[in-house]
Amino acid sequence: TGTENVDSRHNRFHTVNVAQPVRFSRKCPTGWHHYEVTASCYRVYLNGENYWDAVQTCQRVNGSLATFTADQELRFILAQEWDLEENTFVRSDQRGFWVGYQYVITNRNHSLEGHWEVAYKGSSEVFLPPDPIFGTAMSEKENVLCAQLQYFHFPSLRHHGVHSWYAENCYEKSSFLCKRSQTCVDIKDNIVDEGYYFTPKGNDPCLSCTCHNGEPEMCVAALCERPQGCQQYRKDPKECCKFTCLDP
Q: Are 50 and 171 in contact (CB under 8 A)?
């Protein structure tokens, strides 16, 4: 689209390019899933690690093992296609990963008694899981077990939120789910620090914005003239005012 200005003396039309409405398609690095309600990014790591190693891996990417604030967030997680490897699970129709809760055992007399805790204190609004299913690889010496969220691979069951909470031996190896705050990601998939200028992912490589709380703000657009002496051309999707001439 454009605006057309009339030069009345010569009755000529000049078309001026106008910036399109901005649509930012990414607020998470590649491989992460964005959830608008919590302004968070989620990623499942398939390299099986014990619980403690999984905690450190999440911390290295500025996140933590995932905890959940509401059923809607958990349903979002269950609905995603995580491409988990089948050989890491006991049953071929189930999938699972470490998440950020631990089950503290308080009594072993007749039956296991205990309670869930958030493994690493974060948001005060997180909910705690219901009573767990106890895994088969438990140790009689361990008084702390770690949470594994398991769900069925079948899409119909996943989209209905069918899942189970397991309390497993923390030294078992498993996939795991990391969660981090949404972030600014530039057009070349680099993470941008707070307060810096960047060109956000989207459909306009000529935007320059400031990163604020994971959102692009105060954006300024550059407008480009069409290339001279070229009738058919293609804009570079990642470089401002760069064209490829398609004329024979």
A: yes
Residue that is written with structure tokens 């290339």 in the block: 227
Least Cα distance to 96 among 177, 33, 157 occurs for: 177
**Burial environment of residue 31 by CB neighbours within 10 A (0 to 12, 13 to 18, 19 or more):** exposed
Which residue, 217, 180, 223, 182, is CA-closest to 196? 217
Q: In the chain, what are the domains?
A: 33-181 (3.10.100.10), 184-245 (no CATH)
Tens digits of per-residue pLDDT, 198-209? 888 776 888 889
Can you name the residues that pair with 170 across neighbouring β-strands?
Answer: none
pLDDT in tens, 163-187: 889 988 999 999 999 998 888 888 8
Predicted TM-score (pTM) of the model is 0.67
Q: What is the DSSP string of 45-93?
A: EEEEE-HHHHHHHHHHTT-EE---SSHHHHHHHHHS-----GGGSSSTT
